[in-house]
Amino acid sequence: METPPTTRFKRESRFGRGGASLKFRAASYALFLDVTELAERTDNSMKFLSDMYSARLYQPVASKVGGPGL
Length: 70
What we know:
The chain is 79% helix and 6% strand. It is built from two helices and two strands. The protein starts with a helix and ends in a 5-residue tail after the last helix. 0% of the residues are buried.
């Protein structure tokens, strides 16, 4: 037996049936958090590598110019 249309439409939200919609939103939010964390970690590692490169480059330049060394 099929449910009456009025009952069926009351159960459905704007995104479809409630359970599937909530699971999809939770999964998409979890994916968003994972991508954000990956981007932050990548940014931090790039900063670290840049600082290491700058420190290695600073020593020879400072010795040639006569500035303070590390």
